[in-house]
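Supplementary Note 3. Input sequence used for the single-chain structure prediction.
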Amino acid sequence: MITSKKKPKTIGITGASGALGKELTRLFRQKGYKVIGFTHSKTDSEMNPESPNEWIKWECGKESTLKKHLKKIDILILNHGIYNLSRKYSNYENTIEINALSKFKLMNLFEEIALTNESSTKKEIWINTSEAEILPALNPSYEISKALIGKLVSFKRNFLDKDAKKRLIIKKIILGPFKSELNPIGIMSPKFVSKKIFDLAKSNNFLIIISLNPLTYILFPLKEFFNFLYCKIIYSYKS
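The predicted structure, written as discrete structure tokens, is reproduced below.
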């Protein structure tokens, strides 16, 4: 749950300088939360009531340097990513590194922090994967990267033991196309998407689905159900 009657929680948002990152920051600030924005861009952005309370500049491949900052965060939203149309293999590697591997590294770091956290408050991590995890996006490298991080998040959640589940909540954000610099023809507005994320995250559901495609609401729960069964079989086989 993201509501709190005591000290306001600290929200960490990667990709905070992007369209959705800005709207999420604005919304959480309006709700009284402290926001730490992680960005690859310059961090000398103007500070105002709708910007992060603190900017942290980082780059993929150096996720371990963020550990001291992650320790201060209650809810980490992994929202960064790229959409590269190039067919060069080097750009495939770059897309996979940014959209999938860097998120997985940050997820592992945050899990380590959560499991050693002395506070009774659960930490949460929300990972933006996208519909492209299983639906076409007219971009092979993007689809591959989203399929990879989607599978990694599902395995991570299903393989958490009982103690870890008491300390860490994992949520997967599945978004349809929304308007941004990466997708100027997106249908949904970032403001609408951020509001839906905030509202839907209050539930205990693992999936936060925001899409105009009705198939998304059928296919993704089915996919996660079969992932769950598969992980159960693996557990049984190992024991």
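The helical segments are 19-30, 67-70, 89-115, 140-158, 162-167, 190-200, 216-238. The two ends are 33 Å apart (CA to CA).
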